[in-house]
Amino acid sequence: xxxxxxxxxxxxxIKRMPGVGPKMAERLSYYILKMSENEVNGxxxxxxxxxxxxxxxxxxxxxxxxxxxxxxxxxARDRDIVCIVETPQDLIAVSKVKDYKGLYFVLGGALSPLxxxxxxxxxxxxxxxxxxxxxISEVIIATDTDSKGEITAVYLGELIKKLGxxxxxxGYGLPIGGDIExxxxxxxxxxxxxxxxx
Length: 198
Description:
This protein is an alpha/beta fold. It is built from 7 helices and 7 strands. The longest helix is centred in the first third of the chain and has 17 residues, at 37-53. The termini are far apart.
């Protein structure tokens, strides 16, 4: 027996989300249908509000309710160190570490020759412009430790060194092939503390 068209449509939309397969999409669709009307309205309204209110910070490219974001506008931050991450989720993970008080830059992805993602597909030009205009003494490259993250780190390291800026890479307290956003605070803290100059 075929499912109703509206449920099929829900499943098709939900399974496009990262990490959600057909079975999980089906479970989530049926779960949403069992939710109360107030819960469904709350979910829909929170998604719509987030889409309306969230902005991309013009300095670091983090998602924020304000531009510049609360990190870039915090006068207590150390303004001569910038930590480069791939995604806003990675920024949140690193920001939980109390030892790091510098600023950030979100690349919006990583270099991946196999996926045809080159330097023009992430914010490398914006990063270089920022580093040239701000008084930055150190850049910490905190890309993922998978092959894409490593390729990106090496590429960025070479570019940034030409600007006369010290380049460090987070230490390998993070597992090889792991994503920063899923690491715990202690692991990220050790990785930041164990960074090495590139």
